């Protein structure tokens, strides 16, 4: 009567990402003591889109004060609207890597197109695969042939099994450095941009050895929900958060309504520290 | 082009439940110093279904040790399958109220049928309205005519606006004592029973003065996810949790796979205390 | 790994509604040659809400001309907004039954509250159970104790299995006269009010012997989509359609945007006739 | 209170695909009298995956008898499971184009990777963009720079607005030859593979001048539902159907459970003809 996928069979397909395949938690090492997946919670922060050298400098100073180790920023933007700002491209990548070098950050940025692989590889410490590309199997294959860590965002309508199989596509090609990211799923709910399915975090921890972080900015799409959902993510066991920070969200060229200001970010970081400690984590 | 409800207009319908209507948080007073919605986090625990006097005694002893103040237990069960156990009915209610009296608990139990109003009123301190009855407007109206606190569970496919309007149906009839409960929504995800939409908690806190609690048992349907999602709920700002506890989940007559054992419950309670404290709450 | 309901087991619960339980299609006989589930396609039409004797007279004349045999109209309205028009109640039922008697229609109207059972029983030929009450098991039980046909609308987030189990609740109590109604499910789509899941029709035909009709008005919530989706419903094998018709939709007290005008209705009926014929049905 | 996208503003982004931009229906001309979007309903049939020259010959003979003008077949397969059959690649494309040439078919096949653009361009009359690539903006841009017709499948969790904006991405780059395809959306329903949202067809017809077809095979994932949903699609106003046909579905290398056998296909084609006629279409 039913067409529900035979999960047991599908689990057999998780030859590399499953907890059975590898019992210990995978810890991704970015060098210089920066890791994802261990005791320390990884904070990745920065603007949705890289807009200018000045913007990145301003944000970098604040992130540095807050103790952030990984800076995010988009140079190639996947935009539903073909007439919206598409990102600064390679120019943006250069700004990101130069800023990061000055301040000692590791970096993460999205790759949209296979043809940009070398360029993004050169300028970023982590490849980000966005939600719309979670099943872009050609792209998964190519990043899978490198050894650079891949931040794989969950497809907005992917099951957990499909999410893990996308990671399997990367690992199968030789790259064991996959970081999973829950970023909200599409539901009937319209009061938030997506629905943050936070139970994904402990469930993935059962099923896989890979680290998992949360993106509360895209998941909620609403500035006021980012701080409480960052706390909830860490309480649920997430290995890190990916967060939109902008000096002036009202003037952001992309997704300003889901970015928090630098002051709010500092306050959040202060609140997360004792929370992490009580949960046996560091921040 | 679109049929999205005009939210601004609908907000006008929230004459009583909205934050604009009443700025201060509503604190529900159950008597004997037991409250919901204030500094103290409310833990409501017990079995999905009341099975026997002995079962309730066994659980009550453990809940007492753990410092629980409110005992839950179902006497009338809404079962999808007409051939499944339907609950002990009034006999179950008597067991609940007697056990609660012996141990000094307040009680919460579901009312399914208007014709049971007086009976449930007599035996329970809180009326629970289940997810399938969130828009049973006749039932909302009748509990709205009493002054007994109502625990209103979110409909499994209700928007937040519809959820608040259901509370408005109760308040409009004269009962201001409404406790909202996020219990998971129905999505495409099949690896958890429902999807716990935890961002509902801070969003409701913005929109309404009513207390909101979370039911991680029904939301996830999976024992191993209950502890992490309880922590996450409190970190997100919930005023309490409603949790299935059973001395022997494997033999539970209803929803055993989402109940935690008493030892696990004790451990969870110990972990929640420092977490609550760091968040400025008590437990 | 998974919590997907064990469908095979659940099928065992469909002791009465399944195709295995009864091979031949059930045909509901309303008397005077009016049937649902046989060769003839049943058209149930009328306003969402009964507003006045005059309104019902106006519509009845048009329905009569169009060859309609079953008139619909709501007297008790389930309204999300507590401040919206709640229906005329028993007064509305009287208008419905008197109008129907004058014109020789059979009638269908919604029952919301068990306490109205006798009143609705007296005035209507079919009990309608609305989408919000599909799992109001007390109500299902009570209509199940009568022999009056029950039009059971699918819950807006019910699986097909849950839908059939709700019918089983009715049949188990002794009433074999159940008519299923697909009325749209809740999805992420916002450009229609609900998503009309039309594949439900042939799938139900495989799984059950009960007749199934479609409500394109509520499913789409958009006047211009009603005619094409009525045609599609019949092409998919539906045994009838339930349709909102109003002489002046712009002034309707309830859901006017999903009602079609009487002229449009006449045109649709003319178009459906040859379509039904080519599909081996009558209209 | 709400984050629902401002639809009015978004409509302004549909500069080329909207009905306002071009009033008359777009008719795609594939040459040799084969068109999509006019009076004649387009049937695109063939196997999910091209498996061998013999398989394609066998199917081609049957399609020819049935009067089909457009043959489908996949050479590059997007597979969730990295260990499943990935398609024959360029070898498959050659089989497709040679078979089509022998029998006088036009062809449609999926392009997954920008780097295959020239190869697919050479062997196929239509580029198919699959559901997982609907927002692969790099790919949309590249096919948009050609003049070859593009069959754009709806993303499995895309709104209608996002679907039309994806078409706008193609048209904005200079290619006006876009064919939209409804192929089912992801919902909570598990008894069908996806939910065929058929009201999309008349809604798209209102909003856009582009032709729209339906894929009942992927939408339902269930062989027995394909014939009724094909009829329903045409009754709803679709300009064509895309259908999996396989001589021996039980042995198909890909998605066999949603393919119909050639005899069933012949029967369906015979049933569709009078249906099309009664709806004022040709087949």
What is this structure, in a nutshell?
The structure is a homotetramer of 283-residue chains. Chain A has 283 residues and is α/β, with parallel strands linked by helices. Chain A has helices at residues 7-11, 53-65, 90-103, 117-123, 137-144, 160-172, 200-207, 216-220, 223-235, 262-278, and strands spanning 28-31, 34-36, 42-46, 70-72, 106-110, 126-129, 150-153, 178-182, 212-214, 240-244.
Report on this structure.
- Four copies of one chain form a homotetramer.
- With about 280 residues, the first copy, chain A, is an alpha/beta fold.
- Chain A is about 35% helix and about 15% strand.
- In chain A, strands 9-8-7-6-5-4-3-10 form an eight-stranded parallel sheet. In chain A, strands 1-2 form a two-stranded antiparallel ribbon.
- The first copy, chain A, is globular.
- The termini of chain A are far apart.
- The interface of A and B includes residues 185, 192, 224, 229 and 232 of A.
Low-confidence stretches of chain A: 1-9
What structural category do the secondary elements of chain A indicate?
alpha/beta
Work out the oligomeric state of the chains in this entry.
Answer: homotetramer
Q: Overall 3D geometry of chain A?
A: globular
Main sheet summary of chain A: 8 strands, parallel
